[in-house]
Amino acid sequence: MADLEVKDLRKEFPTRGEPLVVLRQASLELNRGQNAAILGPSGSGKSTLLYCIGTLDTPTEGQILLDGNDPFELNEPSLADFRNQQIGFIFQDHHLLPQLSVLENVLVPVLATGAANKEATDRAKHLIDLVGLSDRIEHRSAELSGGERQRVAVARSLILKPSLLLADEPTGNLDRTNAMAVGELLIDLQKQENTMLLVVTHSLELAEMCEQEYQIDNGTLHQQPAKG
Prior knowledge:
The protein has a domain at 4-93 and 162-223: Rossmann fold, CATH 3.40.50. It has eight helices and nine strands. It has helices at residues 46-53, 76-86, 102-106, 108-111, 118-130, 146-158, 176-193, 204-209; strands at 4-13, 20-30, 35-39, 61-66, 87-90, 164-168, 196-200, 212-217, 220-223. The radius of gyration is 17 Å and the shape is globular.
């Protein structure tokens, strides 16, 4: 059994006519330490797939198992806890809270469950050091560049040691130099933390950094040949 199993996922939305089918029997597997990229044109269903895997949306059919657990069998409060503790999210827009410092932003997932203790604060400082922002730890997001903000988002996604990282166009708002740096940093930290990483991207360069590659078209997911 893989650490992440996505089995025959289907997602459709009701319309006045026939249902709008966005995903059609999408399946994939990942194990700890592995990463994969999902490429596809706009509207192909790749972000919908990511949101279903991240439990931000509910599939119409199919099953998702993370470490053998089906999150959709949980009640809403338990599902929210599962999502916070087991899944780290990185979006195209960093979603930093402007009134908080870098350190406080990295600690936001911890604060969702109570006060940050010394262990959590020390881990946040360690992650901030790993993303190269120790000298900016008290800065607010308005005082950071776009690349620096996305580095904070990477650190925040790892604070609770999640089993799975999900990144939706994580370099989409960055220039090429910053995009390459953030992409390399993300994959390096994913390896160091021995977690799983699934990236949705338009960037062929970011996809090339990943070990596995999937193409999605019209809601159908295809695994590409293994990279040499």
